[in-house]
């Protein structure tokens, strides 16, 4: 009985924290990783730095929304499969509801260009910078790993494709294996009970590939609109590397030429998706709502995120075993260093380039950074201050 009470308390804790993050996490997937790092790793210590970096590296490999998969993974490690589902719902539903209700209004009133949105983008700069500093100190302590991080930074800045990230991580893994295969890693990731069996992992991976193959066939055999929608959203979520910004043009190709929504409706939703917190994949909720009301919005959300769920639940059991294997610890040291470089690259573009345009923007960023790093104020205060600061700058 006491054990059941404890797990319910854990699930409630996951729900409260993930929902707060879902309401305040602006700035795209890399910014979300910064928010997760601040809340789950720095403040609550649900995972150690190395385990978090390992999880981020895994989700960079997988197609789909990397930040959502990291959030699901943290929830799973904390509270099992149900914990992962709760973590996903808390982080995702706020933006889903906002897009279903307000997408057309955002376009009508032009709120996506409001000053407070600009302020929230500056908050994202600060959060990511803080996360990068913390991870760099931990994961690039020697010259070799600093060099790997620099290589990852330069390559991903100059060749900004989803495949360049994957290539950099693979290359860093090989270099790390060669450099550190004889080295004993004294800063080990904490080994804890892993709540998913390999059998369940096999089931999830089988279901992922089964749906990917069967849905297009089923779509051709029927004229049911819901099946066609499910197929389009599922394939978009299953085959996209690089996160939300990459899935937006793919969704346009799926739905605008078919006449399910107009170019104007698509652009209205695009603006709305930029103006709400949470993962950009929730743009699917807007498209689904345009096509079939709020039921379509929820259905589209389920369809586009299902591949991410199946992949992370299917690979986590094997990833945990791999990262504990002494033979590949050197590779993980290199991979973790490359993740630091990739995050610095993303900090510059798109986060810095889309947020810091004037000296006033930089001044606000410096203030928010000091509040977070030196004064150690809670992240929600940083978010509110950033929004107010953005509004004030727009009037100056």
UniProtKB/TrEMBL annotation:
Signal peptide: none annotated. It is found in: Cell membrane. Pfam families: Chromate_transp. Keywords: Cell membrane, Membrane, Transmembrane, Transmembrane helix. It is a multi-pass membrane protein. Belongs to the chromate ion transporter (CHR) (TC 2.A.51) family. This is Chromate transporter. It comes from Pallidibacillus thermolactis.
């Amino acid at each position: 009985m006491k054990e059941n009470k404890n797990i319910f308390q854990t699930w409630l804790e996951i729900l409260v924290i993930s929902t707060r993050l879902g309401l305040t996490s602006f700035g795209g997937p890399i910014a979300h990783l910064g928010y997760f790092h601040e809340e789950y790793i720095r403040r609550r210590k649900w995972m150690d730095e190395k385990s978090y970096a390992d999880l981020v590296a895994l989700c960079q490999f997988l197609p789909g929304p990397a930040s959502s998969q990291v959030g699901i993974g943290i929830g799973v490690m904390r509270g099992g499969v149900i914990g992962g589902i709760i973590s996903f719902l808390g982080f995702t539903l706020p933006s889903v509801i906002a897009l279903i209700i307000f997408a057309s209004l955002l376009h009508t009133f032009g709120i996506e260009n409001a000053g407070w949105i600009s302020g929230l983008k500056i908050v994202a700069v600060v959060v990511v910078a803080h996360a990068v500093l913390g991870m760099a100190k931990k994961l690039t302590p020697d010259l070799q790993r600093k060099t790997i991080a620099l290589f990852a930074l330069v390559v991903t800045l100059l060749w900004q494709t989803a495949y360049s990230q994957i290539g950099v991580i693979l290359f860093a893994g090989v270099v790390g294996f060669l450099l550190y295969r004889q080295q004993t890693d004294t800063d080990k990731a904490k080994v804890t009970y892993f709540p998913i069996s390999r059998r369940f992992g096999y089931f999830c991976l089988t279901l992922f590939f089964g749906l990917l193959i069967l849905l297009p066939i089923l779509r051709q055999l029927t004229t049911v609109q819901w099946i066609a929608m499910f197929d389009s959203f599922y394939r978009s979520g299953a085959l996209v590397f690089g996160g939300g910004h990459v899935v937006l043009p793919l969704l346009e190709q799926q739905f605008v030429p078919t006449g399910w929504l107009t170019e104007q409706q698509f652009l209205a939703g695009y603006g709305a998706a930029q103006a709400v917190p949470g993962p950009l994949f929730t743009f699917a909720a807007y498209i689904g709502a345009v096509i079939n009301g709020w039921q379509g919005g929820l259905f589209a959300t389920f369809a586009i995120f299902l591949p991410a769920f199946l992949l992370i639940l299917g690979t986590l059991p094997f990833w945990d075993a791999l990262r504990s294997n002494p033979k590949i610890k050197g590779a993980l040291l290199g991979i973790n260093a490359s993740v630091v470089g990739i995050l610095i690259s993303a900090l510059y573009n798109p986060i810095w380039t889309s947020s810091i345009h004037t000296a006033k923007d930089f001044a606000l960023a410096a203030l928010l950074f000091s509040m977070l790093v030196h004064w150690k104020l809670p992240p929600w205060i940083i978010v509110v201050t950033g929004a107010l600061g953005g509004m004030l700058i727009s009037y100056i």
